[in-house]
Design goal:
By secondary structure, the protein is mainly alpha-helical. The protein has one domain (4-112): Up-down Bundle (Four Helix Bundle (Hemerythrin (Met), subunit A)), CATH 1.20.120.910. 71% of the residues lie in helices and 0% in strands. It has helices at 4-30, 33-40, 43-79, 94-99, 107-112. The structure holds zinc ion.
């Protein structure tokens, strides 16, 4: 079970992480470089930049996924259902939540259950 202090710590951590990810997402949207590079260079470099674009998109997808999970964690904190494993309904260890405040499974269940990600 989480103490009140621990819950507060985790909420602060989750909010800070969420802010950071949102700031990153915003910076990326207004980054004009990705477009400009495409115009100025030849075909091979353009393939490179297309690959980079794929990498960037993948990173962006996983970031959006994390934003979603953190929002979900904050919603659960409001509800008071935060920190309980969705697999076995036991409390998730504080150390684990400290690492990943958006965790919805305890260590044992995360090894047992494959959480579908993204899409
Ligand atoms: Zn569990």
């Amino acid at each position: 079970m989480l103490s009140v202090d621990e819950q507060i710590e985790l909420e602060i951590g989750a909010r800070a992480e969420l802010e950071k990810l949102r700031a990153e997402a915003t910076n990326e949207e207004v980054d004009p470089q990705a477009v400009a590079v495409d115009v100025a260079i030849g075909r091979l470099s353009r393939l490179d930049s297309m690959q980079m674009e794929e990498v960037r998109k993948a990173a962006s997808r996983s970031r959006n996924q994390r934003i979603h999970e953190l929002q979900e964690a904050l919603r659960k904190m409001d509800e008071g259902s935060y920190g309980i494993c969705e697999g076995c309904e036991e409390w998730i260890a504080y150390a684990r939540l400290e690492q990943r405040p958006e965790a919805i499974l305890c260590g044992a269940c995360s090894k047992r259950i494959q959480v579908p990600r993204g899409r």
